[in-house]
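Supplementary Note 3. Input sequence used for the single-chain structure prediction.
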Amino acid sequence: MTKEEVLRLGNPYYSTKKEGTGLGMLMVYSTINKVNGKIQVDSEIGRGTTFTISIPV
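The predicted structure, written as discrete structure tokens, is reproduced below.
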């Protein structure tokens, strides 16, 4: 994913897929935010993307 794509993750109706609604990641980001968690995204084009989710205990 490009840096611009990573920055748009979690925005309503944003999807990189033709058939995607763009609501899945919105729900994930919203849920993690509600429990004061954080999502870190590391992506390299052609290699893959890693999501690290931290939730306080």
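Strands lie at 38-44, 48-54. Helices lie at 3-8, 24-34.
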